[in-house]
Specification:
The protein has 246 residues and is mainly β. The chain folds into two domains: 124 residues, Hexapeptide repeat proteins (UDP N-Acetylglucosamine Acyltransferase, domain 1); 95 residues, 3 Solenoid (UDP N-Acetylglucosamine Acyltransferase, domain 1), CATH 2.160.10. Helix content is 0%, strand content 28%. It is built from no helices and 30 strands. The strands form four sheets. An eleven-stranded mixed sheet has the order 3-6-9-12-15-18-21-24-27-29-30, with no helix packed on it. A hairpin with a 4-residue loop joins strand 29 and strand 30. It is globular and about 60 Å long. The model has no long low-confidence stretch (mean pLDDT 94).
């Protein structure tokens, strides 16, 4: 029973299409979609042809915000899962997100409202794509990464395991009208394992951030940076450019 003053939770109905499947109202689920066990798909979610939804996935989960959260409180649009996309076991994708065709969201990953993941991109196991993040096409985000809200990841970027991005230099001690600035990762740049990017950092096209680096200033295009704080040590060589490897 719902407490006074609170909205009733959205209705979910059992379906015989897969063991333990629960569907909300108005879900678009073609017959070509492959379903694991105990999947939950909330109201209005649109799943494209040939998508694969593995065990224990939650699609279109309603947004739940802390009273102190700065995230926008507009009602999200329905989740859209592109044709041929794969959402792996235990992943949660919120209402308002968009997963491109043939994208993959790994086991136990989390994709928030208004985030978009482009065609053919991969979000690794246990990684989090925060609200209002835009991920381009052909991006590879490895295990245990955090892409903070309002980040932009352009096409063909590589994000190694354990990378952390940040967007609030005050750590929540700021006025309500102060904008948060996530990371900007330009086309074909690479960010090494365990690197940390401070709020608002831009990593230029074809740049490389070394493993464990702490990036406190913007990285120029094609620069290679390492260390704490990160510093430029050389330029990306011609033979290392993406065009040589595709």
């Amino acid at each position: 029973m719902c407490r006074p003053g609170r909205l009733a939770p959205p209705a979910l109905h059992p379906s015989e299409r897969a063991p333990g499947l629960l569907l909300g109202d108005g879900v678009e689920l073609p017959e070509s979609v492959e379903l694991g066990g105990h999947v939950i798909i909330h109201s209005g979610t649109v799943v494209g042809e040939g998508a694969r939804i593995q065990d224990g996935v939650v699609l279109g989960k309603p947004v739940a915000l802390s009273p102190r959260s700065d995230a926008p409180r507009v009602a999200p649009t329905p989740l859209v899962v592109g044709a041929g996309a794969v959402v792996c076991a235990g992943a949660v994708v919120l209402a308002g997100a968009r997963l491109g065709e043939r994208s993959i969201v790994g086991d136990q990953a989390h994709v928030r409202e208004r985030a978009s993941v482009g065609a053919g991109s991969v979000v690794g196991r246990g990684s989090a794509v925060d609200n209002d993040v835009k991920v381009g096409s052909g991006v590879r985000i490895q295990t245990g990464c955090y892409l903070t809200a309002f980040s932009l990841v352009e096409d063909e970027v590589f994000v190694a395991p354990g990378v952390t991005t940040t967007n609030d230099p005050t750590m929540a001690r700021h006025s309500a009208d102060m904008p948060l600035r996530g990371a900007t990762l330009r086309r074909a740049c690479r960010v090494g394992g365990g690197a940390t990017l401070l709020p608002g950092i831009e990593v230029g096209e074809e740049a490389l951030v070394g493993a464990g680096a702490v990036v406190a200033v913007d990285v120029p295009p094609r620069a290679v940076v390492v260390g704490v704080p990160a510093r430029v040590i050389r330029e990306t060589a011609d033979e290392e450019l993406l065009e040589r490897w595709i």
